[in-house]
Each structure stands twice: as C-alpha cells, then as structure tokens.
Amino acid sequence: MRILILGGDGYLGWPTAMHLSARGHDVAVVDNYLRRNMAREQNVEALMPNPNLHERVAAWEEVSGRKIDCFIGDCGDYRFLSGVFQEWHPDTVVHYAEQPSAPYSMIDDVTARLTLLNNLGATFNVIWAVHEFAPECHVVKLGTMGEYGTPNIDIEEGWIEIEHKGRKGRFLYPRQTGSLYHTTKIMDTDMLWFYVRMWGLRVTDLMQGPVYGLMTDETEQDERLMPNFHYDDIFGTLLNRFLVQAAVGHPLTVYGKGGQTRGYLNLRDTLACVELSANQPAASGELRIFNQFTELFSVNELAEKVQRVGNGMGLNVKIKPIENPRKEPEDHYYNANYTGLLELGLEPHFLTDEVLGGMLEEVIRYKERIDRNKIMPRVRW
Amino acid sequence: MRILILGGDGYLGWPTAMHLSARGHDVAVVDNYLRRNMAREQNVEALMPNPNLHERVAAWEEVSGRKIDCFIGDCGDYRFLSGVFQEWHPDTVVHYAEQPSAPYSMIDDVTARLTLLNNLGATFNVIWAVHEFAPECHVVKLGTMGEYGTPNIDIEEGWIEIEHKGRKGRFLYPRQTGSLYHTTKIMDTDMLWFYVRMWGLRVTDLMQGPVYGLMTDETEQDERLMPNFHYDDIFGTLLNRFLVQAAVGHPLTVYGKGGQTRGYLNLRDTLACVELSANQPAASGELRIFNQFTELFSVNELAEKVQRVGNGMGLNVKIKPIENPRKEPEDHYYNANYTGLLELGLEPHFLTDEVLGGMLEEVIRYKERIDRNKIMPRVRW
C-alpha cells in the first residue's frame, strides 16, 4: 500500500512512517517543521537531539535498507499539498499535520489564530486534495479523546443514538473541549463529516488519548531514529513531565486535585491502530470513529506510578499538588468505550512498571540536558 | 445603548442598523463589501440598486435626522477590528459579518476556502476583540437553523439533555448541516461555546431560519434605504426566487420532491429578535441560544402560496419540480421548538397573502431588471 504521512516529522508521524515502511508499505512523509519552529520560538526544544527529516529518512535507509520519500512543505498550502498527491498517488493518507499543543493554543491571540487557521486549513486541503486527485484514498485522521471533554454520561465511540420525546436519531457524540487546540479538532470532525456525506470520502477519525513511550521495534534500532521527547509546559505530556521531574529530584506537579482522568496508550499501540485502520479501510461515505486508548488513569494514579517506579530505582520522588493553571474539572465522571480497535485486532501494550522504568532510564541518560525552568506551567487559562 | 453591527451593509445588517438607530440607540456599522464583491464576481448582483454604505448612512441621516457611524474594513483583520472596538466602545456587537451563501461555499475550493477562513476568522476576531477591549460587551451572533440539519428527533433550542445508560448530561444539540457555509456556523458555535466557558463572555447565538421581506418601518421611508434583494442561484433565497419566477412567467422551480421543510421569518421579526436580545443580554459565561423563526413551511407549501397570490394578481403561475442540485433529504421529519424569543416578547409578523403580494408587487416594479439566466441552479453538490 502507498501511505502518505502528513506531519511525518512529529512524535507520532516519524515512528508511524518507519513502522509502516518496515512492514513493506511504500511510505512518504510530509512536514514543514512547524512544531520544531514553534518549540524553538518558545524556547522549549525537545530533550534529545533529533536529526531533521531528510537525515532521519537517510538513517532509516541505512538501518533498514528501505526508502521513505520526503516532502518538505506546508499542508496549508494547497498548491504544494495537491502537488504531492498528484506526484505520489497515495492509497492512504495519515493526517497528523496539526499544531498539537493545547497550552500553545492558549498563549495569546497570535498562537490561537495560528492553531485555528493551521489546523483547519490543513484538514480542508487534505479533504480537497483527496477529492480532486485521489478520491478512493482512505484518510486516517488523528483526532483526540479531548474532543469529548469530560461529560457526565458514558463516552461512546464517536456516535450516539439519542432517544428524545419518543423518537430516535443517531448523531455525532456531542463534543466540548478544554482548549482551543481541542476545539479545532471538533471542527475538523464537523468538516470531515460534512464532506464524507457530500462526496463519499473514506475517513477514519481516531479519537486518541495521550500517548507515552519512546521505544518501538524501529526506534530502538538506532538512536538517530528516536522520536522527539518534550517535557516542557507547552509540548510536554503529563507523563513526560513527571518522568523528568522524578529524574532531577523535582516534586511531581499534580495540577489541582489530580482527579483528571484520561485514556492513555503506548506509542507502539498508536502505530498498530494506524496500521490496523489502514489495512481495513473505512467504506466510501463512511466516517468511522474509534476511541484510541487502552487504559484509563487519573493524574494522581500516574503520579503514584512514577513515584513507585522512581523510588524503586533509588530516586526519592515526591508529589506536590500545585494550583491548576487550566480551567478544567479536577474530579469528574469518566467512562469511555473503546472496543472498535480491539475488534480490528489491537493487542495493547500496557503501562507496566517495566515500561515506565525503561522510559525513566532513558530520561536519566539525558539528565544533564534537562532545563528545570521549563517544567512549571507558564500558560494559564 | 451603543450597538456595533458587523456586516452592516448586508440584507439584515442594514435594516437592523436603521431599526436600532430609530429606537434611540447609538449605532455603528462595519462592512468590507465582501458580499457585493462576490456578487459582482459571480455576475449575480442584487435586483434593485443599493447605494453604498456611506450613501445609505447619509440617506438615513437625511430621512431620520439620526447619525450612524460607518467603518469600512475587514473583520478578519484583527488590527482593524480591534481598532474599531477601542475607538467605539460598544455595549453590544451584532455579528452578521460572514459569507452568507450555501451555494457560494460549494462552487469550488477557492470559494470553499474563502468561506471557511472568512467566517471563522471573523468570529475569532470578534471573540478576541471583546475579550481584550470590551469584556462586558454582549455578542449577538447570527447562526442558522441549518446548523441542526433535519434530524429525526425534535430540534430543541440549542441544547439538549441526553439520558444515556441511566445517566444524564446537558449538551449542545448535535448539529449536522447541508453545506460548507452551514458547517462554518457549527464551527462558530463550537468556538463561541469554548471561549464563553473559558472567559465568561456574554453570547446570544440566534439560530435563524430563512428571512423574507423588504419592508420595515425604516426601509419603507425611502427607496434608498431598501435592503438588497437577491433572487439568483447563489445569494437568492427560495422565496425570492419564486417571486421573481412568478413575475416573469417562469415556472416555480421546486428542487426535487419539495418536502424540504424549514422555519421562516419576516425581516421585521429578525430586527425585533436582535433588539429583544440586545435589550435583555445573556449573562456573563452564558451561551444563550434561540431558534429564530416563526412559521414552518415546506418548499411545496411556499410554491403553492406564491402561485395562489400570483394568480390572484392576474399572473399565470406554474410549478415545475426540477432535479435537486443539492444533496439533501427531500422528505423528512421536522419539528423545531422556538419559544425563547416569544418569551422575550417577540410578536411575529406572519407570511400572509398580503405580505407576499406586497413583495411580489415590489419585484414586478423591477421586472425589466430581472435576468432569467440567473434563476436556474448552476452550483451542484
């Protein structure tokens, strides 16, 4: 299969590209280094050095003997993106090409506008490029579990049947989020659903939870193939921040009460979910939505896990709740379904103490590069 | 009250400005002539000549003795829009400043992109300008009943309580539309709801049905004060098209089966709804949503009304179903609630034969300006 990966330089994009390449697919990556540029501008660069995308592709060929095609450009530029479609003829396009940070989207009007226009502009162009130049191409779009927020009823997989005043209807599950970034993902879903109905596109929308992990069958073969690792307040995930804090002896900063519960998954499982979706595509005119995570954890549960694993490695890990910089429920009902990807064949990798210990060891290897000034929240909303 | 009207040159914006000015409010209008420019580019200019916005404001002052301030510029340009807020200090902003045509949004990728970026860019800037420079300002936003589409359950006013697996939650009523234009209005609602929750904005989102009519207490005072009247396939409404067809002896073109049912309202009632909303603003942190229409009609019912009224005026009006150029249900359940504005004090003006006859007479006065080439649908989706 010919698989085009938009945002192929990202934390998920690059490991996905290698994973699919290793399994015999023809792969091309597209990126404009937006995340790298934003991270440099905000002075929050990744913990480990990452070669640029051309260098990554070359290193992958050296290690695996397999070629990945590489296009540097902006998916928000239709002339560029439609050119890639016309030149490369994908069967599947994996769309990761969005500004990925909730805090970044909340800094000021400039970063908010960039998030809105970049994310919707890219998704719009993907839709049009598929429609005009690859109408049978299956779009695998990365959404987020954050689209649903934390509703008081069970979260279903994308859709809900509502019974109201004696009648029934099937609808997109109602969505409401906690950041402008997440709101742009709701808008993406609205737009995809519209064009799926109008044009019979094939779309799989993956409502993904926060991803953790550095190691995959491919990344562990060569240090140059590692994905980026952000621990800062802008691009870092909760678990990465806790690991870095444990490594440098900083108390784990739980935001507020720590009851915030989300669905998490291992990086290996993200790759598997994308591959399973690509291999069993959505039908023409179908917006297929999966909830993509494997385990639910609260912030407190993750802090306790990191503390236990860190202490087991001889660290002295403390937990210290701090004022929540975000407007979000800290104690809420949360029950989300996630059977679709398991039915497609996903075999989850869970967040064991061993997995966590492996990540912590990796972070400790780069301990001298950790900047403690980037750990505490600076963006408030 | 100081009321700023964005899109003040539009079919609704200009009559709203005069209506509120006549009732003693301080009014300013903002427009960049986007709709006029698009109409000229598509060769579908309005039936009657309309003076430009400066000329309209001057004519209104001549007729009424009241001044309306006028700013020509693009609400998508934050420097311009935030400048207007800082200079003019509105208590209420009425946001009509969007590309208003469903067919225009479906012509090609250029018009679709313009619709997406223009509409979301304007709404985003309104949100930020209010947040930064007028945090107590009440935003009255024009949405559309089209956001809901034609669901198989009753349409509530913006919100729905869902009971699911023994638990309950209140959500934005699920939305799914029939054009990209309407989809941008869903996205507007998503974005407004996000920032209302984050920043405590005051927002009234008016889910308006198609509006008809030319005459208000103000427009009927002077021909120069009349709103624009589009009958073409891009900017024209269904009823306007039928009236023009009746006037020139063209069969009324019902799209498909004609069972498409929508909520309609008189132009006078739009003005009243906006005024009622402005006078009784939403609370801080409230996204108040009203369904804004007064009567439900199917396409066939409207065709029959126009036929009856036209024949009563000595015309020989035929009805001729044609292939539907749009992808939409032609026969569907439709039951929408609309009590909120009645409770605020709305006294509806209904679509009587007299009202319809008055509009038809006005159209006949301009009969020689009607271009029959602009009547039939050219945009298909």
Short key terms for the protein model shown above:
homodimer; 381 residues; alpha/beta; Rossmann fold; 38% helix; 19% strand; globular
Could you describe the 3D structure shown?
- Chain A is α/β, with parallel strands linked by helices and 381 residues long.
- Chain A has one domain (2-374): NAD(P)-binding Rossmann-like Domain (Rossmann fold), CATH 3.40.50.
- Chain A is 38% helix and 19% strand.
- Chain A contains 12 helices and 14 strands.
- Chain A has helices at residues 13-22, 34-41, 53-64, 78-88, 102-105, 109-133, 180-199, 238-248, 267-279, 299-312, 340-344, 353-365; strands spanning 2-6, 26-31, 69-72, 92-95, 138-144, 159-164, 167-172, 202-208, 211-212, 252-255, 261-266, 286-292, 295-298, 319-322.
- A 7-stranded parallel β-sheet of chain A has the order 3-2-1-4-5-8-12, sandwiched between helices. Chain A has a 3-stranded mixed β-sheet with strand order 9-11-13.
- In chain A, α4 (78-88) runs parallel beside α6, α6 (109-133) packs parallel to α7 (180-199) and α8 (238-248) packs across α12 (353-365).
- The longest helix of chain A is centred in the first third of the chain and has 25 residues, at 109-133.
- The model of chain A has no long low-confidence stretch (mean pLDDT 97).
Helical content of chain A stands at: 25-40%
Give the termini separation of chain A: 44 Å
* Oligomer classification: homodimer
For the largest beta-sheet of chain A, the strand count, sense and barrel status come to: 7 strands, parallel
What's the tally of helices of chain A?
Answer: 12
What spatial order of strands do you see in the largest sheet of chain A? 3-2-1-4-5-8-12
Mean pLDDT of chain A: 97
Largest interface: A-B, 43 and 43 residues
Examine the secondary-structure arrangement and name the CATH architecture of chain A.
3-Layer(aba) Sandwich
The low-confidence runs of chain A, each spanning 5 or more residues with pLDDT under 50, are: none
CATH topology of chain A: Rossmann fold
Structural class of chain A: alpha/beta
CATH superfamily of chain A, by name, is: NAD(P)-binding Rossmann-like Domain
- SSE string of chain A, helix = H, strand = E? EHEHHEHEHHEEEHEEHEEHEEHEHH
Q: Give me the Rg of chain A, rounded.
A: 20 Å
Coarse morphology of chain A: globular
